[in-house]
Amino acid sequence: MAEETQNQENQEQKKEEIDSLLKKILYQGVAKANSAIDYVEKTVSGLIGQNKITNEEGKNIVNNFKSNIDTKVKDMETRLRETISSALQNVRPASKSEVEELRKRVEALEKIVAGLD
Question: Of the candidates 42, 41, 30, 24, which has an alpha carbon nearest to the alpha carbon of residue 69?
């Protein structure tokens, strides 16, 4: 019982570590996206100032870019969460009884192999 509780605690700790890593990745992605938005806004502002595009065209460009970035960030977050959730479902530490069973099987195989010599 105590070992299973320890295994569950270890798994919860791993989930928390992965969740923390996920948040860091997302925050970095959002920071990069904000930098890209700033760059587009400055570039569009320069084009408006040079009368190469209208104010309305500039607003449309920036709004479309922001919308596209928001969609991509949400998609990235969803895909990361799904991937991590799937990976965590497939990972679980072996129980003490499973390890003991494997140890016994290895010992039995070692005896068989030793008898072949």
Answer: 30
Q: Tell me if 44 sits within 8 A of 62, measured CB to CB.
A: yes
CA–CA distance, 22 with 15 (Å, rounded to integer): 10
Per residue in 39-55, pLDDT (tens digit) is: 999 999 999 999 999 99
Q: Dihedral of CA 90/95/97/103: which sign?
A: positive
Which residues, including other chains, have CB under 8 Å from residue 26's CB and lie 6 or more apart? 73, 76, 77, 80
- As to burial, measured by CB atoms within 10 angstroms (0-12 exposed, 13-18 middle, 19+ buried), residue 68 is exposed
Would you list the domain boundaries of the chain?
A: 2-116
Integer Cα distance of 113 and 14 in angstroms: 39
Report pTM.
0.58
Point out the residues of the chain with pLDDT beneath 70: 1-4, 7-8, 91-92, 117
Q: Which two tokens stand for residue 61?
A: 């460009």
Helix (H, G, I), strand (E, B) or coil at 13: helix
